[in-house]
Amino acid sequence: MSQPKDIIVGIDLGTTNSLIAWCDAAGPQLIRDADGEGRVPSVLAFGPDGRVTVGQEAKAHAVEQPTSTVFSIKRLMGRGYDELIASGELAHLPYRVVQRTAGAPGRDIAAVDVNGRLMTPPELSAIVLRELKARAEAQLGREVRKAVITVPAYFDDAQRQATRDAGRIAGLEVVRIINEPTAAALAYGLGIRGRNAEPLVAAKARLTLANREKCTSGAGAEGQSDQGSAGQGSNQTGQPGQAGGARIPAEGESLIAVYDLGGGTFDISILRLVDGVFEVLSTHGNTTLGGDDFDRELIGLVQREVQARFNVSIESPATRQALRTLAENIKVRLSTEPTATIEIDLGAGRKYDRTITREEFEAMIAPWVERTIQSCRQAIRDAKIDGAEIDQVVMVGGSTRIPLVRQRVEEVFGRHPYTALNPDEVVALGAAVQASILAGQRHDALLLDVIPLSLGIETMGGGMGKLILRNTRVPCQATERFSTFVDGQTAVKINVLQGERELAKDCRSLGEFELRGIPPMPAGLPKILVSFLVDENGILNVTAKEERSGQEASIQVVPAHGLTADEVKRMELESYAHAREDMTAHRLIDLRNQVTFDTNKAEQMLAKVGDQLTAEEREAIVTAMRELRELAGTTQDADALWEALRAFDQRTVRLAELAISMTLREN
Amino acid sequence: MSAPETSSPAVVCSQCSTPMYSPLCCASCGALNPVPPEGLHFNYFELFGLPAAYDLDAAVLHRRYLALSRGVHPDIHGGGSDDQRRQALALSAELNRAYETLRDPVARAEYLLMLAGGPSPAEDKSVPPRLLGEVMTLREELEEAEGSKDAEAMERLRQTIATRRQATMDEIANLCRSTTRDEAIRRQLRKQLNAVKYWNSLLEKAQTTAA
User: DSSP string spanning A320-389?
Assistant: First the structure.
């Protein structure tokens, strides 16, 4: 039972925390630190020297360095700057988010301004991923190159692509993107052994590799049951009464709802579990609703009250960061206690002292929780089942610890939610299980998932023409014929949309797909068959063929809110090494630019006011300038270059003063 | 339910020469059926080894769908060559489409009508007489009930709409069971299939406003 050459890890890339897990014969397990903690805060702190820290250490720096501490990156993934402005998202972030202007016009891509350097959300997420990768490598003692990464089920194509791009930039081959609720269901493994709720994880531990079985064809399965069922779960669970290959009938089937409320995203998925197949019937959610929003309610309350009572505005980035930590603590405390007290010393004898009751907190977050309940109802309708048929309700995500959330979920499904596994860890464990399936280590389980949002194209007059409806099983494919409007036209542009609304402008544009290489023909004559294939990851692939000539038309994709393949490749190359080295490389580039700028400026100043210095002074500056330029051209040591640059700046202080006074006199 | 419900298959696996019960993949050796360059054109009923009829056993269809998924899903072929993975993707998409088509009674009837020679929805957009008037009246009543937040009236309307939709579905089932050689019957089926779209969207509206 040798280990496969390439290990595949499972990663939960979360809004608040990220986790990494792997699977061996004993089942999935998390990579934990010395204190047994598996969660790595998805927080990055960029130091003034270009150093980046990730996780707990970064989180600790948030208050000191509010504008260079980046968190909740997931809420920015795959989204445009204009979109984020319109949704009000940016008002809550102490760090600076800007429009990324590089690349083709018409694209709307957000980037974070980190000490003057623009970084896209996938690049930032890649730093978190690299940290996780390094931790896993250190612990497993081997290189990690492949990963299954989870995303919210309700993530659209652009958000999924951004996640995959992040993986690539981090030097990981993302072998599969899976949905978080589905991963959680896989970790729980309900239904495999009826309803005794024994996790698949433990029950299946002994079964790896033992049941290597060929594929069974559907129509033949019943006919050849004695050989066909070995790969189908019933025998594997070792129930003696089920011998003889008869597959577990309907009573082995169960319906489960996974309610996943994390730091920044919400999903509800309804699955049917039968014989190890995890079949998603429907999914709904909100990719910008989570525990963050509850924190923001608390922050807003404190800000308003402090303003009213002391006429003090606590809006600065640093206080906002401090308030965030405070709000998080209050929220957590209110899950177990009826009240929590906030104390803020505002100086000059002013003290804000406030007790918040659980009822008060619940009233604040009730509208958000209600939105999740609406989603649950929609998912039940879309699954075409009766809510009462659901056998288990599984709770995932840290925010499901809130009593109000549990209570409302219990009400809507009419049953007590199930919380046997740690809601923070279950997604990563499920991802590791899926990784072991993909690695060929186990053949007992299979995930059949759906596309969360309808896919279509913009029609004449700005309508949304749906080609693939939401909750369609993936992989799935739709084809559509296009033609030309003008004689000799060789290219056609298609605006691909995702969403449920009737008008193109109300849906998300995934980008312009330009078909090129159409043989010149009279208008309307070419018949271009465009195929929209959504793969098992929920990611769209578009291909086209001109039917008359049989020629494959090439497709140029300009993602509306994402990175092009070239950009991802470049970012991957740029960040080939570890985050620290990566930042060092960037720091070197930035320092070299600074050297060029400062030395050129010194040269200009010398020409202008150099005659006011002694020959000795002039000579010293010229020498220093030459030495600094030389060092910048050769050294790889950023710290040394920084020191040299500072020394040079010191040396030219008098020159700069002279130049400034000259300029002042001139004006 | 231990034997396949179709006669013995004529196709054999190109890899191991075992008879294939489904044209997607071989039950014996696991080989995927090669995807021809012109694309896949399976008969969906044959794909599941089911007779081409409106009435089918949903449990059997579902079981076969799951078993076939175990054969063709890309995750099963994750360790295969690029070519194998591409094939698995195409076959899996086709399997899902076939399943979604046969599982849903309206799509199934639509598919049977297509196999029988149409007309397609684009060729014939006509609906049964009085349908539009009825739909419009119900829609207005629904909006009124919604406006006055009359939950009882909304529930009553939802039930009326569900009943009318069911009647249309019954009619569709009956027509599908009749001989499809008769063009007049196919035209009637077309009208009812066009009608059910109106009922579906009205029912959806009634359900969302009720919730």
Answer: HHHHHHHHHHHHHHHHHSSEEEEEEEEETTEEEEEEEEHHHHHHHHHHHHHHHHHHHHHHHHHTTS-GGG
Residues A32 and A167 in one domain: yes
Q: Exactly one of A123, A157, A180, A572 is catalytic; which is it?
A: A180
Reported confidence tier of residue B72, pLDDT bands at 50, 70, 90: very high
Separation between Cα atoms, residue A606 and residue A608, nearest integer Å: 5
Tokens found for residue A353:
């002292």
**Alpha-carbon distance B146 to B210, whole Å?**
8
d(CA A158, CA A510): 6
Do residues A124 and A13 both lie within one domain?
yes
Domain span at residue A662 reads 577-666
Q: How far apart are CA B60 and CA B53, in angstroms?
A: 14
- Predicted-complex ipTM score: 0.86
Residues 62-121, chain B, touching A (beta carbon < 8 A): 63-76, 78-79, 89-90, 92-94, 96-97, 99-100
CA angle A183, A167, A13 (to 5 degrees): 45
Q: A60 and A172 in one domain?
A: yes
Q: Which of B4, B90, B93 sits opposite A220 (nearest CB)?
A: B4
- Taking CA–CA distances from A376, the nearest residue in chain B reads B211
Q: Are A7 and A27 in contact (CB under 8 A)?
A: no
Residue with tokens 């008869």: A246
Nearest CA in chain A to B48: A219
Choose the final residue of a domain: A530, A561, A592. Answer: A561
Parallel, antiparallel, or unpaired: how do β-strands A350-357 and A254-261 relate? unpaired
Same domain, residue pair A128 and A157: yes
Residue in this structure with the two tokens 């509208």, named with its chain if needed = A367
Of B18, B21, B17, which is closest to residue B7 (Cα–Cα)? B21
Do residues B113 and B193 lie in contact, with contact meaning Cβ atoms separated by under 8 Å? Answer: yes
Nearest Cβ partner for B30 among A215, A221, A223: A215
pTM over 0.90: no
The verdict on A581 and A550 lying in the same domain is no
Which positions in chain B touch A535 (Cβ < 8 Å)? 74, 89
Residues 6+ apart with CB under 8 A from A276: A192, A232, A233, A236, A444, A445, A446
**The predicted structure's pLDDT at residue A518:** 85
Closest residue in B to A281 (Cα) is B100
Per-residue model confidence as pLDDT tens digits over A537-582: 999 988 888 888 777 777 777 788 888 888 888 888 776 654 555 5
Q: Tell me, what's the pLDDT at A552? A: 77
* Same domain as A61, residue A167: yes
Which residues, including other chains, have CB under 8 Å from residue B25's CB and lie 6 or more apart?
A: A215, A217, B31, B32, B33, B68, B71, B72, B91
Domains and CATH numbers, chain B: 1-103 (1.10.287.110), 131-210 (no CATH)
Rounded CA gap, A445 and A245, in Å? 17
User: Looking at the domain assignment, is residue A51 inside a domain?
Assistant: yes
Of A175, A219, A443, the CB nearest to B21: A219
Instruction: Count up the domains in chain A and report the number.
Output: 4
* A556 and A588, same domain (yes or no): no
